[in-house]
Specification:
The protein is an alpha+beta fold and 185 residues long. The protein has a single domain, classed as Transposase IS200-like (Alpha-Beta Plaits), CATH 3.30.70.1290. It has a 4-stranded antiparallel β-sheet. A hairpin with a 2-residue loop joins strand 2 and strand 3. Helix 1 packs antiparallel against helix 3.
Amino acid sequence: MNIIQDNLYHIYNRGNQKQRLFHSERNYNFFLGKIILYIQPHCDILSYALMPNHYHLLIHANQHSAELIDGRILAISNLSEGVRLMQSTYTKAFNSEHGICGNLFQQKAKSKPIEYQSTVQAINTFHYIHKNPVESNLVTYPEDWTFSSFREYLNPHLPGICNKNLAIELLDLDYRMFNSKQKYY
């Protein structure tokens, strides 16, 4: 991943051969813990959705995101290493729990740079991530899916892993849009 400070990135990956990544609430929560441990220290998370066989993150790269790790033969940024560790440590635990071995994720995670100065693409990605559980027919409304950041925006005073204030500022969002199912859709 080539990370540039102050850019937005849509980071995503899915299960190898489209297999399930999460079989239980415990799996989802464990992966969220990996996001907090390995991703959150290196960027500002703006939105996320964990789906049965894939995940999405919309992040804002800060100064720490793009810094290269010292002593590496190949140059790798803090954020890239965080994504690698998130996936590899989850895979190790998942495989151990299920008595299997091998790749859980498809190769490397994808990261699409997003120009937030042209706010349309950034806003579309933000909403795409939140609508993903609805589009996949897992729930009727985004707030019904437990494993996305939509509820963090629905209840802005509750703690969460997203930098909601930065998302509101960068994407020119309004909290009121999250309070009405009809307005969001």
